[in-house]
Amino acid sequence: MVGGVFALLGAGMLISGKVASGPAGVVIYTVCLAGGAWIAFRSCVMGVQIDSTGLTERGLGSSKVVPWCAISVVNTGDGPGLAPAEAPGLTLKSGERVGLGALASYSSRTADADFVLIKSLHASHVADCTNCA
Question: Tens of pLDDT along 66-88?
């Protein structure tokens, strides 16, 4: 929504021509329009995509593809007590941790169901894959 507001602001000022009459105004509002459009577009495609090759996490500025064979552990962050011991995410075989903040939800049941799905898909991949042994 924020990206859309900036895109509309930039477009409105460029079209009206009153504020953007000088070259500096044109540059500022063109950047505002382009940046707002980029934020609006990327926020629509953010999240985690799961397919047969692995996970793709799309953030606001970048994307990360993690193949199933590179994943060592799917960590849900569960631990003793009420608060999670660490942030949920993936631990790769290289030791790198990849957070999955895009799976955050106001509903703990939704987030738990997502991690159960990821764990089961990873376990079934490891059981069937000859490269993961």
Answer: 898 888 888 776 655 566 556 67
